[in-house]
Design a protein that fits this description.
Layout: E1 7-10, H1 16-27, E2 31-36, H2 39-49, E3 54-58, H3 66-78, E4 83-86, H4 101-129, E5 132-136, H5 149-173, E6 176-182, H6 188-196, H7 220-231, E7 242-245
Parallel strand pairs: 1-2, 1-4, 2-3, 4-5, 5-6, 6-7
Protein name: SDR family oxidoreductase
InterPro entries: NAD(P)-bd_dom_sf (IPR036291), Sc_DH/Rdtase_CS (IPR020904), SDR_fam (IPR002347)
Pfam families: adh_short_C2
């Protein structure tokens, strides 16, 4: 039980990667705070994990005071907080021609500012437990796809936040801050987006090797398995680190120039 007696707050955990992390945390002995925007989905996760192992809070993370309300829920329910997983994210397409100021600021608010504010709200509790923060980024942080410009910028900002606080908070508070950058993951929302783009229902079963050398993309459970290492004591004092989780070297990779096999992404 690698997380026995730990209390972990996971934003955006009613679906996808966050839900997979929550389930894995409970399997490893933790109690969790589930967060999301959909009350029915959050309730389903709590029912699956058990009311003695999970409690939910449904609210837009960018609402004023929401981060503190999440922290307060953890403390009032379980009496402590050992880790925060900043997983909630807005994923929408946009480039320099289609992105206006309001859309850009919304993306930054959800994907970069909210993790900062949740970490800040949790810091006093995490200092008491010598806890940790795990940010869930994206390999798009390094430059991103042409039509994911604001999203990629926001994930680049999150990566800088991780490296900066990973140094500062370890020295000043004994709190570790690390990040994992998932590649292409088959979440419920990703499947929905691809269907909305006109792809067939089983689009993920026949992907070009240039995008999925293994013949498939990643499962949320595989990202969750990696998250446990950073939340567990076995990762020791390691802080300020970013781990990419993709099935090919994302940086410096030069795929074939034949574009006929590129799917609509």
């Amino acid at each position: 039980m690698r997380l026995e007696n730990k209390v972990i707050l996971i934003s955006g955990s009613a679906t996808g990667i966050g839900k997979a992390i929550a389930k894995c945390c409970v399997t490893e002995g933790a109690r969790v705070i589930i967060h999301g925007l959909e009350a029915d989905l959050a309730a389903e996760v709590v029912a699956e994990l058990g009311a003695d192992k999970a409690v939910a809070h449904v609210e837009d993370l960018t609402n004023e005071g929401c981060p503190q309300r999440l922290v307060d829920l953890a403390l009032s329910t379980y009496g402590q907080l050992d880790a925060v997983v900043n997983n909630a994210a807005m994923v929408s397409q946009g480039n320099i021609h289609t992105t206006d100021a309001a859309f850009f600021m919304k993306m930054m608010s959800v994907n970069a500012l909210a993790p900062f504010l949740l970490t800040k709200a949790a810091l006093p509790a995490l200092t008491k437990t010598h806890g940790s923060v795990l940010n869930i980024g994206s390999v798009n942080a390094y430059s991103g796809e042409p039509n994911l410009l604001p999203y990629s910028i926001s994930k680049g900002a999150l990566m800088t936040l991780t490296r900066n606080l990973g140094d500062t908070l370890m020295r000043e508070n004994g709190v570790r801050v690390n990040q994992i950058n998932p590649g292409w993951v088959l979440t419920e929302n990703e499947a929905k987006r691809k269907r909305e783009h006109g792809l067939r229902e089983d689009w993920y079963t026949d992907l070009p090797k240039v995008y999925a050398p293994a013949g498939r993309i990643l499962w949320p459970e595989e990202i969750a398995a990696a998250a446990i290492f950073w939340l567990a004591d076995e990762s020791g004092p390691i802080s300020g680190q970013v781990m990419d989780l993709e099935q090919h070297p994302f940086i410096g990779r030069n795929p074939p120039k034949d574009t006929s096999t590129i799917p609509s992404k």
